[in-house]
Design brief:
Blueprint (H helix, E strand, L loop, with lengths): L1 H8 L3 H8 L13 H4 L14 E4 L6 E6 L18 H11 L24 H4 L21 H11 L1 H16 L11 E2 L6 H14 L4 E5 L7 E5 L3 E2 L2 E2 L15 H8 L3 E9 L3 H12 L6 E3 L8 E9 L3 H5 L8 E9 L10 E12 L8 H22 L1 E2 L14 H10 L2 H8 L5 H7 L9 H16 L4 H6 L5 H10 L15 H6 L3 H27 L8 E3 L41 E3 L2 H6 L7 E5 L10 H10 L24 E4 L1 E2 L6 E8 L10 H14 L11 E2 L14 E11 L4 H9 L3 E3 L9
Parallel strand pairs: 1-22, 2-10
Antiparallel strand pairs: 1-12, 2-12, 3-5, 4-5, 6-7, 8-10, 8-11, 9-10, 12-21, 13-18, 14-15, 14-16, 16-17, 19-20, 19-21
Helix pairs in contact: 6-7, 6-8, 12-24, 13-14, 13-20, 15-16, 20-22
Length: 769
């Protein structure tokens, strides 16, 4: 880990060269720019100079705090209580004694690779072997019929069936044992949903409900078989009816009402982790489906983020107890409420960003103090323009994937009906990665996960089989690829004949639905970005006849606008009509209308009211040149030769109704704060995280200190700090705070601020595949 940290935090000449290679002013983009490839082309204020910088060199350079609908910014306000309950000490001693799941340290350490969450053996198997104990009493175990044995073999295979029958025997011979003290048997991946359904029923029937099954949330298609909980006459585990082991009323709405509601809300603080990664870990430890958790939107992995999470019918002490197992996350601030959380149920996010190694045109030949003054002038001008004029509300690059075959390419093939091509695009890889695999060394410039992915796909293409070795080699984050491979590889157990090797739609249906919809949404985003750039090129910030605005947004008529649904990135989900799609239609669709020439000239509407459609069968297109542009672009080779007026498909998941998105965005409440500072070391932390603040305050309180710790003054854009004396350090950083609405991309805001000069930090390896 120490070597990784050194590689990330110490500046290397190659990294500096990446910035120094920029030719001319910062707002000139290079040919074949990846942004231009997805329609990101224009700047609102090209006349305002930008600057060059590195974003997310440390994950503490990117702090994100959710903003609730009330306007409150979510912060971690208390450290979790991690004292163990008496009955938990024996259960968790083995899993915590090595310190491998400590909460984040006060001094956050960077890591170039994501931290993997490993299951805690003691919580599932107590470290036991699957075989029966040697000292088990000699008790007769009912024999299974040959028919039942064959059913289990057909579903699970011989090896897993043996483990299941051993588990059953152990339960019969040791009836005094609690369910949690028995092992859990995990099946191999069962791709066929009907087989999984059969498995649940067969286990319950054959073993007379002494075993129970559940589908694993962290491994698609895997079934866990475990001992069923014993039940006394009064309720679960022999407790009085409606109470848990601590005597708390849990059953019925009355008990939860006394707590405040059936939904437990809490604050989730995490460092360098995906939201879903943490929730999958929690769900596994709590033995509940991950879908029980609710949240308003996922947050970036490479950052420090704070957000609200809710879970149905859960006591706080159970999640409090997980904090001692936490790796780079904290859960606290528990409160029961009557309602849960919906995706998109937030006003937006507050960002506190550290931009490092900032470089400005005209700084050549200046001494340190002169560079600092120049930087303050440039940053003040850029921030003021950003606050007042806003930025084009483009979909950011993360919307289109991070590899050479973008998600929008897959989505286009799906909409074209080329489902085989869509599958091939998802399974595409660079043969060069396999050369890396053959010459693996510690200096490799490619992440091992990408090499393993390529090797697994090559193995499948050569053999047509998805054996255990392939499954184990495919990294878990590539679930779409693995799901497709396993589905297409399925064979008849008796004849060995492949059953569905050309069922491309069936293969795509194996991908989790949110991810599957992401592909077609990415194509819509490509079209929207391209149309937004074209509109800006033609009309700039002028409102013109035929522009679209949301019905009722400015005349007090609430009937035209209803609650949006959004996906995990905070983006509005495209919702086809109820009779034309598998999607439910609980709310009416947001409507837009074109404005007249008189309305455009009246001043009632400005550019921040104008929307553009995501292509679909249930939207209006602008009644001006931009409406025609949709037809031209989508009908071109680049647009896939599609018709914007014909977006219905027989496959309902990709039958797109469309949606609307504001052309322009600007910071909420006009909040833009900047601090320009000089620093020496590349790894110097500029800001304090919520967790660090709480730990500092706790230490000060325990020591009786004054608490006077000054992390630097924060300055408004109109009064960017001056006169702080001589500075001897040579590097310049800009610390910026601003707020954006939901579904707006901070990367696109930074693009406008820096005029394309913000470069994402890259570790010393490539992620291209």
């Amino acid at each position: 880990m120490a070597e990784k940290r050194t590689a990330e935090t110490n500046e290397s000449p190659s990294k500096r060269a990446k910035l120094d290679d920029t030719n001319g002013t910062a707002h000139h983009t290079a040919p074949n720019d990846p942004e231009e490839a997805v329609g990101i082309s224009a700047f609102v204020s090209p006349e305002t100079p930008g600057f060059r910088c590195i974003v997310k060199q440390r994950y503490t350079d990117f702090l994100v705090n959710e903003i609730l609908p009330t306007g409150e910014v979510v912060h971690l306000t208390e450290l979790p209580e991690t004292k163990r309950r008496p009955q938990q000490k024996a259960e968790t001693h083995a899993s915590t004694s090595d310190g491998s799941h400590d909460t984040p340290a006060t001094t956050v350490q960077d890591s170039a690779e994501p931290v993997k969450v490993e299951p805690v053996p003691t919580l599932e198997t107590n470290g036991e072997d699957a075989s029966m104990p040697d000292d088990a009493d000699e008790v007769s175990v009912p024999a299974l019929s040959e028919e039942d044995k064959q059913i289990l073999h057909d579903i699970f295979g011989e090896g897993t069936t043996a483990k299941i029958t051993d588990l059953y025997a152990a339960i019969i011979k040791r009836p005094d044992r609690k369910a949690r003290d028995h092992v859990t048997v995990r099946s191999d991946i069962i791709s066929d949903k009907s087989k999984r359904t059969e498995a649940h029923g067969a286990i319950r029937r054959i073993f007379q409900s002494k075993l129970q099954t559940e589908t694993m949330q962290d491994q698609v298609g895997v079934i866990a078989v475990k001992a069923a909980a014993t039940r006394g006459p009064g309720g679960p585990r022999g407790q009085p009816n409606g109470t848990d082991r601590n005597g708390a009323i849990t059953k019925g709405k009355l008990g939860w009402s006394e707590l405040g509601g059936e939904y437990l809300h809490f604050t989730l603080y995490k460092e360098n982790k995906d939201t879903m990664e943490v929730l999958y870990f929690m769900a596994a430890q709590l033995k509940v489906p991950v879908k029980n958790f609710q949240f308003a939107g996922t947050k970036d992995r490479r950052g420090v983020t704070v957000q609200k999470v809710a879970i149905h019918r859960m006591h706080a002490h159970r999640i409090v107890g997980l904090n001692r197992l936490a790796k780079n996350w904290v859960a606290s601030g528990f409160e029961h409420k009557k309602h849960g959380l919906d995706l998109g149920e937030l006003t937006g996010n507050e960002f506190l960003l550290t931009l490092r190694d900032c470089q400005f045109d005209g700084e050549e030949g200046l001494d340190g103090q002169q560079r600092l003054e120049l930087a303050k002038d440039k940053v003040a001008a850029a921030a003021a323009s950003f606050r007042n004029r806003g930025f084009l509300n483009y979909y950011g690059l993360q919307r289109f994937g991070t590899f050479s075959t973008g998600t929008h390419v897959v989505g286009l093939k799906m909409l074209q009906g080329d489902l085989e091509g869509a599958v091939d695009s998802i399974l595409a890889y660079s043969p060069n990665l396999l050369l890396e695999d053959e010459h693996t060394n510690f200096e490799s410039m490619v992440p091992q996960d990408d090499i393993n992915r390529a090797a697994a796909i090559r193995t499948w293409r050569e053999t047509g089989q998805a054996g255990p070795e392939l499954v184990s080699r495919m990294p878990r984050r590539f679930q779409a690829e693995l799901s497709i491979i396993q589905y297409l590889s399925r064979k008849d157990r008796r004849t060995g004949k492949q059953l569905q090797d050309r069922d491309w739609q069936g293969a795509l249906m194996q991908i989790q639905r949110n991810l599957r919809l992401m592909y077609v949404h990415a194509y819509q985003s490509l079209v929207w970005n391209t149309a937004a750039g074209r509109r800006w090129e033609l009309y700039g910030d002028k409102v013109v006849e035929g522009d679209l605005v949301i019905v009722g947004e400015k005349d007090g008529d609430a009937s035209g606008k209803v609650k949006e649904e959004v996906d995990e990135d905070g983006e509005p989900i495209v919702r086809p009509a109820a009779d034309d799609s598998a999607l439910s239609a609980e709310d009416n669709f947001v409507r837009a209308r074109p404005i007249s020439k008189e309305e455009a000239e009246s001043g009632k509407y400005d550019i921040f009211d104008v929307v553009l459609p995501q292509p679909g069968f249930d939207v209006l297109y602008p009644a001006n040149a931009i409406g025609k542009f949709y037809e031209e672009f989508m009908g071109s080779e680049a647009g896939g030769k599609l018709d914007p007026h014909n977006m219905r498909r027989t496959w309902k998941d990709i039958s797109l109704s469309g949606g609307y998105r504001k052309v322009m965005a600007r910071p909420l409440r006009g909040l833009v704060e900047c601090e320009v500072k000089q620093y020496a070391g590349g790894d110097e932390q500029m800001v304090e995280t919520d967790l660090e603040r709480l730990k500092r305050e706790q230490a000060e309180a325990q020591a009786g200190g004054s608490g006077d710790v000054n992390g630097g003054d924060k300055m408004d854009v109109d009064t960017v700090g001056r006169g702080h004396g001589e500075a001897s350090d040579t590097n310049i950083a800009v610390v910026m705070k601003f707020q954006l609405g939901s579904s707006q991309y901070a990367t696109m805001a930074l693009r406008e601020l820096t005029k394309g000069g913000a470069a994402a930090y890259k570790p010393d390896y490539s992620t291209t595949r």
